[in-house]
């Protein structure tokens, strides 16, 4: 009995001393890792967990007052504006895919095929991405002035088209906002696709040229298969980004007219800073996160099935 206990104690001391030796040996690595982990926990996870905690309370300002369970979630979902906002969000996603998803791919393929001025077009395409979001939205607000003196309406007038109420017409508002988002964001995505295309082995192009392949065959059998993983990744990132759109609707329309351009993030902002209902604001943020998580899981499940 004593012999068994002593052997167990020796094993524990050996494990303990081994753990200490490991820390002493790897102290420099941990010195680099620990600050990053602490920074991530403090600035990412702590606000996230505190926000989820706050969503279960009635709040006064940003301070919890009384535990009310899921009532904030019930109030948010039962409000009629929530379902309109959710529908708006999917309309945003649809138009962003129609107008903004294929444009970077097409431009990247065109620039990749250029023999001259390729650097100029790379810089030109990326330049709008360097403009701050609020400044870009204000620029487009002046361009889409609904009167006949707005720059876009003046251009349409030269073609004999009557002025349009771009940001005041509920049927045009979301399309107009998506156009501004596409102008500002497509350059960075285009550069990702261009870099991916330029990593293709030139021997594949040479073999295709020997076989007499046209540009259509090169596109179908070399370019698109090579960039298909990146297409899947950017697709889910774009959907996630559109669900969190905030700057453009805030500056251009403030969600109007009649909530026609309201988004989930903008409504969450209004709950927190216009109605001072922080609990509902965070509850809406959690609901948005859950929707995105479900969409992401479904997407990756479908992608895995296609790959298999």
Word description of this protein:
- Helix 10 runs antiparallel to helix 13 (278-307).
- The protein has 13 helices and two strands.
- The mean pLDDT is 83.
- With 308 residues, it is mostly helical.
- It has helices at residues 2-25, 27-54, 71-78, 80-113, 118-126, 133-143, 151-158, 173-198, 202-210, 215-243, 247-252, 264-273, 278-307, and strands at 57-60, 63-67.
- The longest helix is centred in the first third of the chain and has 34 residues, at 80-113.
- Strands 1-2 form a two-stranded antiparallel sheet.
Q: What is the compact description of this entry?
A:
The chain is mainly alpha-helical and 308 residues long. It has two domains: 2-54, no CATH class; 74-307, MetI-like (MetI-like fold). A hairpin with a 2-residue loop joins strand 1 and strand 2 (63-67).
Number of helices: 13
Number of domains: 2
CATH fold topology of the largest domain: MetI-like fold
User: What's the end-to-end separation, in Å?
Assistant: 57 Å
The major beta sheet can be summarized as: 2 strands, antiparallel
- CATH architecture assignment name of the largest domain: Orthogonal Bundle
- Which radius of gyration do the C-alpha atoms yield? 27 Å
- Unreliable segments of 5+ consecutive residues: none
**Side-by-side strand order of the widest sheet:** 1-2
Helix content: over 70%
CATH class of the largest domain: Mainly Alpha
Number of strands: 2
Mean pLDDT: 83
Structural class determined from secondary elements: mainly alpha
| SSE sequence, one letter per element | HHEEHHHHHHHHHHH
Shape: globular
């Amino acid at each position: 009995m004593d012999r068994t206990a002593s052997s167990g104690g020796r094993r524990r001391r050996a494990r303990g001393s081994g753990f200490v030796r490991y820390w002493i040996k790897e102290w420099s690595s941990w010195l680099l890792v620990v600050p990053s982990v602490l920074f991530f926990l403090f600035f990412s996870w702590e606000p996230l967990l505190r926000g989820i905690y706050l969503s279960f309370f009635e709040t006064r300002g940003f301070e919890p007052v009384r535990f009310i369970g899921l009532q904030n979630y019930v109030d948010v979902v039962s409000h009629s504006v929530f379902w309109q906002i959710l529908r708006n969000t999917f309309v945003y996603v649809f138009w962003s895919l129609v107008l903004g998803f294929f444009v970077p791919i097409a431009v990247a393929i065109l620039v990749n095929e250029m023999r001259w001025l390729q650097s100029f077009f790379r810089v030109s395409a990326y330049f709008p991405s360097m403009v701050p979001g609020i400044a870009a939205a204000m620029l487009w607000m002046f361009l889409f002035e609904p009167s006949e003196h707005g720059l876009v309406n003046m251009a349409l007038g030269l073609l004999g088209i009557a002025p349009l109420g771009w940001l005041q017409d509920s049927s045009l508002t979301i399309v107009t906002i998506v156009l501004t988002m596409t102008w500002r964001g497509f350059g960075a995505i285009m550069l990702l696709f261009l870099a991916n295309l330029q990593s293709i082995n030139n021997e594949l192009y040479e073999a295709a040229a020997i076989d007499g392949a046209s540009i259509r065959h090169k596109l179908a059998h070399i370019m698109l298969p090579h960039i298909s993983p990146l297409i899947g990744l950017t697709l889910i990132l774009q959907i996630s980004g559109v669900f969190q759109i905030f700057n453009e609707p805030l500056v251009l329309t403030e969600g109007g007219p009649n909530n026609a351009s309201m988004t989930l993030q903008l409504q969450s902002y209004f709950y927190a800073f216009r109605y001072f209902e922080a609990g509902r604001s965070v509850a809406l943020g959690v609901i948005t996160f859950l929707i995105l998580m479900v969409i992401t899981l479904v997407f990756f499940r479908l992608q895995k099935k296609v790959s298999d």
